[in-house]
Amino acid sequence: MNMNTPIYNMLLKYSGKRPLPFHMPGHVMGRGLAGLLKDAGSLDITEIPGSDSLHDPDGVIKEAQNLAARAFGAANTYFSVNGSSLGIHAMIHAAIRPGGKILVNRDAHTSVINAISILRAEPVYILPDYDKNTHLNLGCRQDDLISVLSQYRDIEAVFMTRPNYYGVASHIGSMIEAARSRGIPFLVDEAHGAHFSFSGLFPQPVLELGADACVQSLHKTLPAMTQTALVHEGSSSLLDKGRLFKYMSMLQTTSPSYVLMASIDIAREIMEQRGEELYDALYKRIEVFGRELSKIDGVRRIKPDNPSVDTDFSRIVLSFESSGLTGFEAERIFRESSGIVAEMADYYHLVLIATPFHTDEDFEALLKGIQEVARHGKGTFDDKFSFVGIPDSLPERAMNPGDAIEMPAEYIDLNSASGRISAATITPYPPGIPLVYPGEVISGELVRMLSEIQGSGGRVHGIMDGRIQVIVKA
Ligand SMILES: Cc1ncc(COP(=O)(O)O)c(C=O)c1O
């Protein structure tokens, strides 16, 4: 394959000249590294004549970023060597002023609340819909977004996650229009949807739906190395010109890894050249897999049956409820009996990421593994969390998260936390939506719910040994 990969080609050319480097990094193109890392290190260079600069690109990096912009349908694209997390920080910094208001889906990635906290900004949350049948979050509703936008006239930007971890992509086109009609930018965390641009079989990418900016983790679904991500600006972005690049540059290392940047370049090229064909083949493989799966007792593929969402066919969400197994139990059996390692498990589900680089044999092994898990089934499913849902309302806010994280904090017993202000984000699984963010008041009802979830064997991030971090009373 003739590769149009400017960064990778530059690296090959440079290492092919067998230079004598008296420059960074200290391992001297792999010499000082051990074992298998020697090979990886042979292309690990720094900024040298001809390698361009991520912070002032006008050579191979600019070329590679332009190629990515074209491939993903963006006006401008910037490389991130610190994942979507960095891109999320940059987008939020570019879109709102310090102390400004931003509308956010309540179940956003932790980098969102971190960026909001650093900016001392004020989040206005909307809760996602929760499908009690599949135990999946379906994304936020347009009605909620419109009502919040009309209630708070000073919201400066909207931030939404789409798709979510389970491959559920809500219909956000009309939400984007609603934000644009108010003249505020719509930012999207598309970390799990970098592959959407390369096949019509996937939900439409958000740039096509008019998002002002989005981030995508290439490393999650495309053939790219961990940490690689892209930040895109849409063709009619409402962000002030140059702001997104400015914050990408301010937040990112001045020594970006060329191995990572070359990996972005290569993933984009593979997808441009072969994406359509590769995803057609994967779709067919997964169809065959689905038919075979339906013949196995005790397992079910989960997809929300809801007209307001699309789903990513390559995200395989399984339930072993009819075998009497939780997602956690299924994950362990899978790993121990078949060596198959899932992406993620929760109480109800097992989540697998399928890619074009999985073979027919891999899917056969997967089916065998599933049979093995189902064989370990123990009868009826004891649904300990049927009482859990999405709360009807949000907790009272005593202060913004950015102020809360600066306050002196202490750990206290959960049972005595009623009425105190949280210093941490508390997220029970299920349903995987933060019940409390820093600065919010822990109600008696919330303590009861968290205790019940923990008592039933659920996991609650943010609570350690029954203790919760709260702000010290004045
Ligand atoms: C929805 C979502 N957004 C953002 C991120 C952060 O992505 P990255 O790991 O590329 O920084 C994650 C990571 O898991 C995620 O699940």
Uncertain segments of ≥5 residues (pLDDT<50)?
Answer: none
Strand percent estimate: 15-25%
Strand order of the largest sheet: 1-10-9-8-6-2-3
Q: In the CATH classification, which architecture of the largest domain applies?
A: 3-Layer(aba) Sandwich
The total domain count is 3
Give the helix proportion (percent range). Answer: 25-40%
Task: Work out the radius of gyration.
Answer: 23 Å
CA-based shape: globular
Per CATH, what is the topology of the largest domain? Aspartate Aminotransferase, domain 2
Write the layout of secondary structure elements.
Layout: H1 6-16, H2 37-41, H3 60-72, E1 76-80, H4 83-95, E2 101-105, H5 110-118, E3 122-126, E4 129-131, E5 136-139, H6 142-151, E6 155-161, E7 168-170, H7 173-181, E8 186-189, E9 213-217, H8 218-221, E10 229-233, H9 243-251, H10 258-294, E11 300-301, E12 309-311, E13 315-319, H11 327-338, E14 344-345, E15 350-353, H12 360-375, H13 401-404, E16 409-413, E17 427-429, H14 444-455, E18 459-461, E19 463-464, E20 467-471
Parallel strand pairs: 2-3, 2-6, 6-8, 8-9
Antiparallel strand pairs: 1-10, 4-5, 7-12, 9-10, 11-13, 13-15, 14-15, 16-20, 17-18, 19-20
This protein binds pyridoxal-5'-phosphate.
